[in-house]
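User: Fold this one for me? It's Phosphate acyltransferase.
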Amino acid sequence: MRIAIDAHGGDHAPAEVIEAVKRAARAWPEYEFVVVGQVDKMSAPDYENIQFHHTTEKIEPDDEPVRSVRRKKDASMVVGCAQVKNKTFDAFISGGNTGALMAAGLFYTGRLPGVDRPALAAIFPSVVGQGTLVLDVGANPEAKPEHLRQYALMGSIYATHVLGIEKPRVGLLNIGTEAGKGTSLTKEAFRMMHTEAAIHFVGNVEARDILTGVCDVLICDGFSGNVLLKNTEGVAKEIFSRLKQEFMRTPLTKLAALALKPGLQSFKGDMDYKEHGGAPLLGLAGPIIKAHGSSDARAFFNAIRQAIQFHEKGVIDLITTHLASEGAD
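Assistant: Here's what I get for Phosphate acyltransferase.
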């Protein structure tokens, strides 16, 4: 099994990428890890199961996604997605330009039969359990009801076989829990999911309830999902910053902080995206995973773990088989 990772993806690449790959090489000595990029500019770690695939170009964070993917044929992101398509790589991870990764995935890896639009599926933190799988969180700002239904099917399969959730509860992001709430998109999507026997649909879910674990998979269009995810990240960051200020204010609050430190660290870990790795682009014809742009070595390492699970559980085949059975019906 060969897991490839983009050397140029993310704010802290390539140093944090290389460190993550070294950790992965020690953790999974039976697997092969390939760093894709301008490898002549890197120091190669001395591991038998680490290889380098040299490319001459890279896609920058501010590059226009479609244009850069079409023009930079030897960019690390393009090469990674193309090599997944031809089975040279079993999975590819990048913390780079989200739009470019989506475009490279569509142009070079391709979609699964029966999937109209792939969805970016991220783990949304919660105060209970292992979080909620939210899709879409930015791949497609606009969506149709059928797209949301497909997201629900793919998200259910991923939650079951990768996250280990038996009969995952699927919710639809909305402004109220009543069946008649929302836009024409959410109303029709509600109707379609309510009659879809292959998923365990629990109805509409309000944003304020997600942290309490009201569902295991949350479905929404990419615009709403991206706003939801980034708002939560921002709120969590500011809360922990403010708590730190308050605990450092006086000797008494410092003592209180010392007593509460284990619990606070555990809570912070539950809310930290780095613990969950990356967001797979479900619906592509191969495992393509988008790591957070500010990922450090720990986050990239967990994205590698996620890619291994994705491949070993055969998620692509499971989604393909399910969609094919739908077509036969």
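One thing worth pointing out: The chain has ten helices and eleven strands.
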